Batch of 2 targets.
Target 1
Amino acid sequence: MSKMFKKFEFFLFLVIVALIVFFAFSTENFFTLENLLDLLISYSFLGIMAAGMLVVLISGGIDLSFTAIATVAQYIMAIVIINYSGNLFSAFLVAGIIGIVLGGTNALLIYYLKAPAMIITIATLNLFYGFTIFITRGRWIYNFPDWFNQSHNVFSFTAADGTYYGIPLPVILLVLVFILTYIILKYTILGRKIFAMGGNIEAARRAGFNILGLTIFVYSYIGFLSGIGSVGQVLILHSVQPNAIVGRELEVIAATVLGGASLAGGAGSVLGTAMGVALLAIVWNGLIIMGVSSYWHKLIIGLIIICSVGINAYNRKRNALGGN
Amino acid sequence: MNEEILTMHNISKNYGGVHALRSVDFSIKKGEVHCLVGENGSGKSTLIKIISGVVQPEKGAEIIINHKKENYLTPIKSIQKGIQVIYQDLSVFPNLTIGENIFMNYYAKGSIRWVDWKNIKNVARETIKKVKVNLDFNETVGSLSIADRQLVAICRAIATNAQLIIMDEPTSSLARHEIDALFSVIQQLRNAGITVLFVSHKLDEVMEISERVTVLRDGSKVGLFKRTEIDDKKLSYLMTGKEFVQEKLSEKVENRKALLEVKNLSKKNEYEDINFKLHQGEILGIVGMIGSGRTELAFSLFGMNPPNHGQILLEGKQVHFKSNESAIEAGIGYVPEDRIDQGLIMEQTIKNNATVTIFEKLLNHLKMIDKKKQQSTAQHWINTLSIRTSNIENPVKTLSGGNQQKIVLSKWLATNPKILILDSPTVGVDIAAKNSLYQIMRELSQRNIGIILISDEVPEILYNCHYILLMRKGRIVETFQPEEVTEKELNDKIIGDGQDE
């Protein structure tokens, strides 16, 4: 994008390196292949949703309902898989379609009711989630078929000491989602229109952009990613739980904003978002390994977000002043 | 050269029972700079909206673009016909680069799906070259000045081979030297064979740039004139139907009591060694380019920008304002340049805006705002300043620019000030409202209020001040009485050697 973002991303990168060095020297177990891989697996779901959030934030919108969408997608996918069998592909297909439909619903409500996206998606968060809990009575689902519960690894290998390593499917999914999102944002007209819409929606309308179409894409995209991401999560946990995802909306938004996306729209990058997620994951994991009381975790995360947003705002201001 | 690019016959438009346009005939010749002038509410915007396909005219209208009759014009169709509108708020994308902004209309076409960044750069480079302006296509638009953003908007319009560019009030937020730069760009466009429709209510600009002028008043066409046939006075009469007599103020005020005295006032990097006196009932004009330190000086007098050195004496006593609160208490009012951001709370009612400075005086014994008192105070000022509104409970944004400015004025008059500082009070206000603001200023001066008027508009300063200070690069470089200079001389002095900026 511009020099300013590159500068900010470079800063993020330095912070991440510093944190890794810090945790590597102050704990024994942080800087091990096993821990880092674990970290990657357990945060892949958050990362996938953050990519969707990035696109929504760039368009100038916001979505708080995507965790509910993910939960709905998980339940319906689980019911379909358990009752009608199928394969991994059909699991992703079902969850993806559910995500697109619910995300599209958000988009239509936002566009036609002309209400703030935040209000609409708080409403649909409750609607989607409440409905799911009502239908399923909040039951946990465990009884997946064996082919589903076996580990789905790509590029697996056994190390010299006999430990088995492999790159699990959710991680591959994360990488693919980041690449896809990067290409959409940087190299498609669609992506550039989303940036333009987030920068000045009135100007985008006057330029003849199809605002309804763009809105539908943006919210369906985060819905789609939440859907397929949620399948990845079930593959790791082997269960569907009503409250595993809902409640983590702010974490995802925080990671995205940490990565340089602006709540005002029009700004953000995939690289930044990836680093935002990584930063959050590393701090969280490092603190646990260090044995820091969990009371401190949220406080420290909060401080990091404030510092990051502050530095970003400062950079932007300096940039604006220097421009004249 | 007599070919017409656009011809319109019998254009009418009704909104409810209001006739925004009444069977107007309008035509533009290929390659000319044509001005469309009229007061606010004269139908200019409606006519532009019809040309750009945003609004449909009533039955019986005929629109011919390049000899082809258009039955139903939509925004997309209008763009395809080579018509581009540059709106007053510019419609640029601040988060994107100049290059991408210029390329934006290709995105809208929908025939491409993938971004070719090299192509974007090429198109941007070519376009910038065509207009002969100095822009770096890698820069983010958000960091540009308003004037440069306008150039970006113009580049964007011509990037897709626009034939007719409509500029809606393009100079409303530009400084004089930026206006000159814009005019030279318009000349470039003209040389490149592009037709320009320049919409404005600023007479001097119209006289400077146009070849032909169409005048609208109350939705009807008053006439089509060659520039050589008219002058400022005639144009002003055609637009308003009224004649305004401008007379310089000639009373001498030096012997009156001094309200405000400024001695050796300096602020680092802003202004230096400022000395002047403001007498009772005096209107003191401060002119100078943006960046001459005039606004910073005004802020200092209003307690919002403490000076480093020097003294401010109020009725002979030295004051040190810590904030604008103490300045207001001492009897100073300040009408800011930007009434929308700094002067008014747009969503709030007219009543609340008009009384916001005196809420404390309106409290009853329960420390609540006395509704009746507030109502009568607001009504009093609305009557005094003859502000046209149907209901003072309406949000202030429903008022026209001139009436909004009067509300800002009224909220300061309600504080019963001794001194009023007016920073560019008539920007974006039409002629009739302007003259009524001038009238109000003269009345205030009769009531012994001292006024400091900061303005870019030479006639405004020349015909409404007792005394004029010229600032350049933070210093007062010259002072004069209005009868000592002509409009042209004053204009030249203001620009002075400031053009290198």
Target 2
Amino acid sequence: MRGGYLAADTALHRLPAGAKLAGLALGSIALLPLQDPRLLALALALVLVPYAALGRRGMARLTQWAPLVPLLAIIGIIQALAETPAAALASVLRILAMVLMADLVTLSTRLDDMMEALGVVLRPLGAVGLDPRRLALAVALVLRFVPVLAASWRAREEAWRARSPRRPRLAVFAAFFAGALRGADQVAEALDARGFSSHRTRRRP
Amino acid sequence: METRTLVRMALMAALIGALGLVPPLFLPLAAGAPITAQSLGVMLAGLLLGARAGAGAVALFCFVVLLGAPLLAGGRGGLGILFGPTAGYFLGYIAGAYVTGLLAPRLPLGALVSAFVAAVIGGIGVVYLCGIPVLGAVAGIGLQKAALASAVFLPGDLLKALAAALLATTVLKGWRAPPPA
């Protein structure tokens, strides 16, 4: 899998996640009002320095954003026609600098550190019933479910292909979804059986 | 919240992520714009889990993506998503799933038609409503042109709404109905 954390030992990796998030917020606020393409190009060049320092892996990381290129091209063309080429260049440079700056935080921060830092931001949501312990479990479940589901789908698809030359029909997809949801209920029962919900004060008859 | 609801939300979030792993389809109809299966998962979340749990599942998906899991179509993830031109669509998914789940059981039409209309209003209407202003502002191209650029994805999204409605009604027949939201 691409994306996410990139293990390395740079100054950026050693900074605490909260400081990086705050820096990202400040950097974005600073970039937003800039209109001069030269200043924005300078900002983008600065953002690219850590990528260059990561060498080949940093370059590979940049290609992760290739899906953004057609969209940026459309934006650039529309703006160059509607306004000036300089304004178009400024927009494209600003988006690139902001996206790549944010990705620097992601690539230099481990998922659990990020979770802790974002947990501080999300703490006010505790008032509406967001329990950090449950959120952590939910995140762990999502990360675990993705490969399980992908493998389960491949197995079903192979079973179908072994029996039919046609593409899988709707019923195959529906059976996959229903099976996945039933599986989720079994996981929930298993969690409850191990006392997961007992930490919460739950009224039981 | 019941543990069962929590796990169902996690599963739905994972399904949306797994749908992002499906290679994007290139429809000639939509001028070659990549049609990913991801928004299909958003509609399904609302239809299968109802408004609250469906929106919760999508919010959980968004949170995991922002944490850095590369689950967005094309293997993207991380905070960069929030700063790109498509941030509005990304966060609009949450509202879209909510509205889809809210409408589907309340529309006075047949199960399949209700699901389709709800998916169109929530999964397309609401998502575009959140996405277009952000695209217009971030890209500096204005609302009209942003709307025009989004229209490219409309044919694919309509197909996905149909697929979501067909799938959800079939799945709900085989799996016991979720509690009303």
